[in-house]
Amino acid sequence: FGILAGIAYFYMVAAWGGYVFVLNMVGIHAAALVLMGRFDRKIYLSYTLFYAIGTFLATRVPVVGMAPLKSLEQLGPCVVFLGYQVLYACEIVRKKHNLSRLDAWKLRFNAAIIAGIVGFLLIVFVAPKGYFGPISSRVRGLFVKHTKTGNPLVDSVAEHQPASGKAYFTYLQVLCTFAPVGTIFVMKFLGDGPSFLLVYAGAAYFFSHKMVRLILLTGPIASVLGGIAVGRMAVWSLHQFGFGIDEEGEEKEEKGDDGVPDDGKSGAAKDKKKKKAKKSPASSGSSSQSGTLSNFRSACDKAYKSNEGVVIRRTVAAICLVAFYMSGASFKDYCWKMSTGLSNPSIILKGQKQSGEIVVVDDYREAYWWLRDNTPEDSRIMAWWDYGYQITAIANRTTIADGNTWNHEHIALLGKILTTDEEEGYEIARHLADYVLVWGGGGGDDLAKSPHLARIANSVYRDHCPGDPTCRAFGMMDRYGTPSAMMERSFLYKLHSSAIKSNVNADPTKFTEVYRSKYGKVRIYKILGVSQESKDWVESPQNRRCDVPGSWFCPGQYPPALQGVLARKKDFAQLEDFNRGNKDDDYQKQYFENLANPSKARDQAARAEVPKQQQPKISGDDGDAPSAEFQKPSQDKIDSVYNRWADTDETTLMWQIISSGNANDLNAWLQTNPLVAFVRSADGRGPMWWAFENRNQDMVKILMKVGVPHTDKDKYGKSPVDLLASN
């Protein structure tokens, strides 16, 4: 079975990146068996064959290579494997020299000390050479709070958030009740095999609680434990009605730990227990307590076998059987419904109009089929990596990135293209792609995700959001969908909102919209002026770097035309990557500070975003009104903001700017988002009140130019002018 397990493990390595979890599960179980005192030749051979064969075959997979012997997240099972060799060698010596129990433990202790010293010296020797690989951020994310792994790419994935109780019930339903009961039964009948169930259950629950996508791991173990619980309780219930074995014969065979009838040794052990019980002096206090307990158990046993006890047992058994049938039928129906829902394609959605009419939103599939039917076969499609697999599988076209892209720097370049200025993004994209696919239509579209894209880009290209690792300057300024200046001029915003929002149009000399889906969920643009030289260079076999000639594993290379952009990148340093000499402590420190205090980061980004040349000069003593021109929002938007009194980040930032007396900062913010001039705090006061209160004439003129009134009342009945008079 060890050989078969090793081969099965190799298949898993070749098919699924989650093989690391399985490997560690088996290693933990092997170590647990030693701690339980169940180590023997059978266990030794099983684990040794599994690890040796499985690891050898796994290293033949190109993308895995020597990772099982180098990566820290896979070295635990290797340590267990080496420990097994030491233990088995000690067992051979013990049997050969017929050592006593004490001498055997001394031998094991000395062997462990020697093995530890050798291992320590080996680590000291190879660690400085960069032999060991770090723990990845995805694994580290299982032990720290979601969004705080230090890697913006990992933090951006919504599936990495912790699981809720509702999520467990959604996917496991009644197993949430039966699985814990099954765990109790497993603990009662513990053995070599059942102990693995406990290890698996503990690990699956811990990791799924940390990351919602890993609820997938709880399915098999919850089913096994739930089946054990239902099976044992159902058998007991049937016994009460005479099915299976009769009441008198029920206790004739005593079972061992693993459910197998005891052999002669077990019977001898029971005889010893009886003799020991007879030898116990009746006069001792412990004997008195034992007698009391024995009397209590005898009374319970008598009640259990009485006529009334039989009636109660059969009543409980009947209730259990009916409950099992009803819950089973319900669970079966629920599983079919759930399987139907999960089997439906996630790119085809159902919606409902206000009239109640049901509509099928098939925009995504239709867009992919359009690519398949209307673009050349060698077309390269640029889109965020989330849709890479769909483009490859459904449209049968090459995509710039997909979910299997392990290169952080490549994803960062894609994020930079989409969130940088339209001109710079175009100049990079024309060397990499022929078409750009954008998800729109609101909800979780590309624009909603774009702050994460900017953050990922900045983790490698530090000039993207200078001094701001969390890129607070890129995003929506308010809940009304007002883009920041950086977002408004971005490549993605231009393509996403072109001809939809006023004054937003993609440059017609750079892009041509060739497809827009029925409900606007997908837009496809053809990139004009694609560099054929770069395309030919990438396609040339001479420029491919494969692990062996003719292999499918060929890491890509960028065309020479992008060397200027690539020269500005700084490879992202994982927090755990101790092999790199160039640490990035300053970036990580500021990244975590901005995550911990988003209001402060947003304040700094708002102050630094608008270029100085776009800030109109604010007059000082001459009393002239500022020359800036503001684009006044619609009256509906103004009313929705002005009539809402609440303490928010916007009101706090506005109060800070006005209190500081910096009219340039106020003017710069209103240039990008005039609506914030109308915010009001919980007491009904807003920018105009604070400007009068601080006697800042320049700010009053700026606010009046935007259209903020100065005669309205706060909740105390005071207008801005009243504050001036009171002061």
Could you explain how this protein is built, in words?
This protein is mainly alpha-helical and about 725 residues long. Helices cover about 55% and strands about 5% of the residues. The chain is built from 32 helices and seven strands. It has helices spanning about 1-15, 20-35, 40-60, 65-70, 75-95, 100-125, 135-140, 150-155, 165-170, 175-190, 190-210, 215-240, 265-280, 285-305, 305-345, 365-375, 390-395, 410-420, 420-430, 445-460, 485-490, 490-495, 530-540, 565, 585-595, 600-610, 635-640, 650-660, 665-670, 685-695, 695-705, 720-725, and strands at about 350, 360, 380, 400, 435-440, 510-515, 520-525. The strands form two sheets. A five-stranded mixed β-sheet has the order 4-3-5-7-6, sandwiched between helices. Strands 1-2 form a two-stranded antiparallel ribbon. Helix 1 (about 1-15) runs parallel beside helix 3 (about 40-60), helix 18 crosses helix 19 (about 420-430) and helix 30 (about 685-695) runs antiparallel to helix 31. The protein is globular. Mean pLDDT is about 80; it is low at about 245-285, about 575-580 and about 610-625.
Task: Kindly summarize this structure in a few lines.
This protein has 727 residues and is mainly alpha-helical. Helix content is 56%, strand content 4%. It has a 5-stranded mixed β-sheet, with helices on both faces. A two-stranded antiparallel sheet has the order 1-2.
Number of strands: 7
Helix run count: 32
Oligomer: single chain
Main sheet? 5 strands, mixed
Q: If you average the pLDDT, what whole number results? A: 80
